[in-house]
Design goal:
Mean pLDDT: 85
Main location: membrane
Protein name: Sulfate transport system permease protein
Pfam family, one: BPD_transp_1
Number of helices: 14
Distance between the termini: 52 Å
Radius of gyration: 26 Å
Subcellular location: Membrane
Helix content: over 70%
Structural class: mainly alpha
InterPro entries: CysW_permease, MetI-like, MetI-like_sf, Sulph_transpt2
Shape: globular
Low-confidence stretches: 1-5
Length: 291
């Protein structure tokens, strides 16, 4: 066309091995960052874990087994498992219900509910334990009434369970809320139009769609419940053989200079952490493979 300005051809964009160096970092930058990241991981994660195992087995397998089978250690293990067995199912029920309400319904105060769910993430576990001491302790709000009815919460199993519930209840809900928001409500609405009841919709539509996220949240909740220290330390009273969980038992052994025994018990928590990591990775692969 007359009067038009000729345009110069645009060079093709190179991809793969032919990528223009001007748009990428130099190779030495990439390897430097990888090296620094690996160094940090080794220094902060791998080395401490290796030291725990080395110290636990430093005096041989006999001392290691004796530390794990000692009566106080067995009592701490049983209490830790009992608290996890109680708190994880309760937090699972709460997490599913909270995620269902927040993602499937519109109501005033939804933002406040989400904030309250996240509250244990922003409060120190020690402060969380202190809250329950001020509420249920002998000088707390309900302390006199509990004493009159011979109900013991603080320095007993109920206090440990309540503190662990408080610390761990966000995990399942926070795993499910983003997942269920992303899925939307179309499938549930379609089920309603077909005449399905609420329970049938949940078991046949919602639960299959959230099963991997739910399992992921349960695993994280269980790991935190068994490894919780701060809040449980405040409400347990450190009664040896009665209210000590595994983390508290590790602290007592270390303060008594029983280093091999303390590292042996700590290795149980390390095994739990590694098992949790493997389960998380497996669930992640399963979730991706089903998409």
């Amino acid at each position: 066309m007359a009067g038009s300005i000729p345009l110069s051809p645009v060079p093709p964009v190179k991809t793969g091995r032919g990528t223009n160096r001007a748009t990428t970092e130099a190779p030495w930058v990439k390897w430097l960052l990888i090296g620094l990241a690996s160094l940090v991981l080794i220094w902060l994660l791998i080395l401490p874990l290796a030291i725990v195992l080395m110290e636990a087995l430093k005096q041989g397998w006999g001392v290691y087994i004796a530390a794990l089978t000692e009566p106080d250690a067995m009592s701490a293990l049983k209490l830790t498992l009992l608290v996890a067995v109680i708190t994880v199912p309760l937090n699972t029920i709460f997490g599913v219900a909270a995620a269902w309400v927040i993602t499937k319904f519109q109501f005033k105060g939804k933002g406040l509910m989400i904030t309250l769910i996240d509250l244990p993430f922003s409060i120190s576990p020690v402060v969380g334990g202190l809250i329950f001491v001020l509420v249920f302790g002998s000088n707390g709000w309900f302390g006199p009434w509990l004493s009159e009815h011979d109900i013991k919460i603080i320095f007993a199993l109920p206090g440990i369970v309540i503190a662990t519930l408080f610390i761990t209840f966000p995990f399942v809900a926070r795993e499910l809320i983003p997942l269920m928001e992303d899925q939307g409500t179309r499938e549930e609405e379609a089920a309603v139009t077909l005449g399905a009841s609420g329970w049938r919709i949940f078991w046949s539509v919602t639960l299959p769609n959230i099963k991997w996220g739910l399992l992921y949240g349960i695993i994280l909740c269980n790991a935190r419940a068994m490894g919780e220290f701060g809040a449980v330390s405040v409400v347990s009273g450190h009664i040896r053989g009665e209210t000590n969980t595994l983390p508290l038992h590790v602290e007592i052994l270390y303060n008594e200079y029983q280093f091999s025994a303390s590292f042996a018990v700590a290795s149980l928590l390390l095994i739990l952490a590694l098992a949790t990591l493997l389960l998380k990775s497996w669930l992640g692969h399963k979730a991706v493979s089903e998409k």
